[in-house]
Amino acid sequence: xxxxxxxxxxxxLIRWRPDMELNMDDYTWFEGEKGQVFxxxxxxxxxxxxxxxxxxxxxxxxxxxxxxGREKFWSQTLIGxxxxxxxxxxxxxxxxxxxxxxxxxxSLIDVGLKGIFPHEVSLLWLDQQSGVIVEExxxxxxxxxxxxxxxxxxxSDLSVNIQLFVGEQLxxxxxxxxxxxxxxxxxxxxxxxxxxxxxxxxxxxxxxSLLVSKLGREEREQVATLLLKxxxxxxxxxxxxxTYLEANSNITEAAKRMYMHRxxxxxxxxxxxxxxxxxxxxxxxxxxxxxxxxMLDV
Length: 298
Prior knowledge:
Alpha-Beta Plaits; Arc Repressor Mutant, subunit A; four-stranded antiparallel beta sheet; about 300 residues; alpha+beta
C-alpha cells in the first residue's frame, strides 16, 4: 500500500512507536503488509472509511509506554524538534536493537533490555520491532557492559531473537552533532542487521562490508574478478581463505574451525596465493583479499 497516498487522504496518519506522546485511543490502528502499525485519528474516519480500510488491512492494537524524564529528553534530541544549542554531556553511546518478531509484549523487552545494565539507561522505540538504548557513563573510565555475555540469556528468557549494534562511545557535543551521529549510526545498524548473523556487532565488524556496499554491483564484480582471478569461482577455496583470515590468519585455529589438518589448510593457502598472486600472509595482502571476498557477499 502507498502510505503517502493514504496520508494525502488522512493527514493525521502516523506510524506507531510505543513511546509516542499522544492518546492512543484517539486513533484507529492498522497493520501494514510489512508489519508496520499505522494510526489514523478517528475524527478523520467515517464508518465507511473504517470498513474499507479494514477490508485491506489488519486492525491492530497500540499500547503506550511510559517514559522517564531522561527518555523524553533523548527523544526530543534525537527524533523530535531538538534545540541545536542543547549540550549533551559525554561519554555516551547508542546501542540499537532489532527483534525478529512483532508478536511480543514490548514492555517485556523494555524491562529485559534495561535490566542488562547496572545503571539507568534510556530506551526509545523507533518502530514496532526496533529501537535504541542510550547508555550514559559517569566518567571516562567507567567500564561498558559486556553485552555478548548476557544477550543470549535474555533471548532464552524471552523466547525471541534480538540483534544488537553497539555504537562507539561519544564525547560531549551539541544537539546538532548528536543527531548527526545518531542518524549515521542508525543507518549503519540497519545495515548490520541485514548483513550480520551475529547477535552483537559493532562498527569494526561491519565496516569492510559497509565500505564495499558503497560500490555498484558491476564495480564489485570487476574488482573481485581482477583480484581473485580464476579462484573467484572456486567456492570451497574461497570459504577456506575467508575462515583463515577471520581466524586472524592463525592456521591452527582456522584448521580447528574447518575440522581440517593444518597441512591440508596450508596447501590450500599456497594454492590460493599461487592462483591469485596475492600474498595473504602479509598484512596488506590479507586486507585486500578480505575486501575482495566481501565484494562477493554484498
